[in-house]
Amino acid sequence: MNNAYIKFKYAADFFLALIGVVILSPVFIGVAIAIKAEDGGKIIFKQRRTGAGGKKFNCYKFRSMKSTQVSFDKNHPVIKDNNGNLTKVGKFIRKFKIDELPQLFNILRGDMCFIAPCCRYTTAITRSGKRLNLRFGRVLRDSDKYTGTATST
Question: Quick check: 140 pLDDT over 60?
Fold first, then answer.
């Protein structure tokens, strides 16, 4: 890719994310208060992700799960919504994809961008090994994204 294009894309992503954070700051505050009021746990959930070039970073989301009880599907590192771990606030913020909003800070940091192949859970890459590299090799070369099938449906 052209170096000027990459710089323009980064600048556009940065300014769009900055505008988003400013405009959505009342939503950030409201969701933070609701999460804290429901069970007193942490507001932000951090998950280790592997992105472009194998770079590892923390992906931020609003916490939607109970902080004391987490059960994983043994074959997949993603927590299922129907196992009783979602909080009441969590159900709402997941339904409207509000839990993804803190990823705007990942964009501001340069960890992710708005449109690119999706970053992967670091544990999924470690567990899958060669199979993941064959199927999703491009993911590790390209930049990480905010939008995707999970966030756009």
Answer: no
Instruction: Find, among 95, 88, 106, 96, the residue nearest to 45 by Cα.
Output: 106
Residues 69-94 pLDDT 10s:
555 555 555 555 556 789 999 999 99
pLDDT confidence tier of residue 128, bands split at 50, 70 and 90: very low
Q: d(Cα 132, Cα 139) in Å, to the nearest integer?
A: 10
Element (H, E) at 46: strand 44-50
DSSP structural state of residue 63: -
Question: Which H or E element spans position 73?
Answer: none
Reported in sequence order, the residue ranges of the chain that DSSP labels E, i.e. its strands, are 44-50, 56-62, 120-121
Model confidence, pTM: 0.73
List for the chain the helix, strand, coil content (%; round to 5): 55, 15, 30
- Amino acid identity, position 116: A
